[in-house]
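Researcher: I need the complex structure. Ligand is nicotinamide-adenine-dinucleotide. Inputs:
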Amino acid sequence: MTSTSAPAHDVTDLGLAAEGVRRIEWSEREMPVLRLIRARFERDRPLDGLRIGACLHVTTETANLMRTLKAGGAQVVLAASNPLSTKDDVAAALVSEYGIPTYARRGEDRDTYYAHLNAIADTHPQLTMDDGCDLVSLLHSERPDQVKEVLAGTEETTTGVIRLKAMAADGALGFPVIAVNEAQTKHLFDNRYGTGQSTVDGILRASNILLAGRKVVVAGYGWVGRGIASRMAGLGAHVTVVEVDPVRALEALMDGYAVMTHSDAAAWGELFITATGNLNVFRREHFEAMRDGAIMANSGHFDAELDLPALQALAEGHVREVRDNVQEFDLGGKKLHLIAEGRLVNLGAAEGHPASVMDMSFANQALSAEYVAAHHAELEPKVYVVPEAIDAEVARLKLAALGIELEPMTPEQAEYVASWQHGT
Ligand SMILES: NC(=O)c1ccc[n+]([C@@H]2O[C@H](COP(=O)([O-])OP(=O)(O)OC[C@H]3O[C@@H](n4cnc5c(N)ncnc54)[C@H](O)[C@@H]3O)[C@@H](O)[C@H]2O)c1
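Model: Output:
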């Protein structure tokens, strides 16, 4: 598994490294904020000697984050945060070209996935960087003695933040974690525009269907669901939203979409996309109601949003791959299709979010790592939002990189908005 010259690793094929480097450099062009941070990190080395264990999707954008952390002086190791999201060429490049220990193989089974997480844990990280809380969860459940070694963690996604808040509420969280997902410059852009576009990308690469005129059901109208619905509508699809939250359902309605129950939507829809962070959103009774040829995909964090055991049971073993990343389930009277095994479709069937949006998410990660390196002694074992100053700095740097100037307030305006004496 590990050759003598390369750092420790378990990747599919180191021979793919050259292609990985080309693609990582292409992404880097679209990540000006992270480039600026890397240049500063190279100078100031704010992470000097810090052991960082990262469990993130192994994509070109993540590679650029790893390079940034390493430039800041950190000893970084990386494992995949999902068995199907790894880009094997990127994993190879991280090892061969950038000297970063990496454990990730696209399509790895559950045992390999956890062996990789354990390889990260074996390096005794002082800072964890998670996408979905699996590394934090492993340390707390299987290696409790190591929890005290961790100064702090960062968490990338909504589902991970929900799990961490549940741990904190139970008094089970052993170190502070910065919820990168809660930064405005993360979820407003990454979850909405990043997932919106890349979900369409994954579905099209896998199926090549026409979206104009298609009946699309989006389950969940959070940041991710909003992005998917708006991109689908923009391509001419008829969009129906299913929600459990009354405010979000109203918002969807007034944004111009139909709102239905899962049962009604199951009979109506042709393409179903889940983005709830919940489980068994579409299940047996819905599969039974779906029309012949219906397609399903998931963009939520875990592959639990579609009840896949029920789908398997209904098909009684009549499952075959009809295109790359598309499985056909033959239910007798009809066939249903599933993209990317029900795992995050934008990463399983495409390349994940465009680099330009990950530029902001990963700028928040890098600056949060710098923040915890400097301030961990002041933090308690709970979930923190990204400091406002970091969020504002990321937005400022992104605008500057895009060549866009902000309108400054006049002194008179600044005084007016700060005072309470002005009235009618
Ligand atoms: N694919 C990606 O690259 C990507 C990127 C960011 C986030 N995510 C993941 O996507 C999921 C959603 O993230 P978000 O930021 O939109 O979260 P969110 O909390 O803003 O939205 C989730 C929505 O789903 C609704 N919901 C919950 N259960 C439901 C059910 N049974 N039926 C219908 N609606 C239901 C909630 O009311 C909520 O409005 C999370 O798992 C998150 O981790 C994926």
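Model: Summary of the prediction. The CA atoms of residues 409 and 417 lie 10 Å apart.
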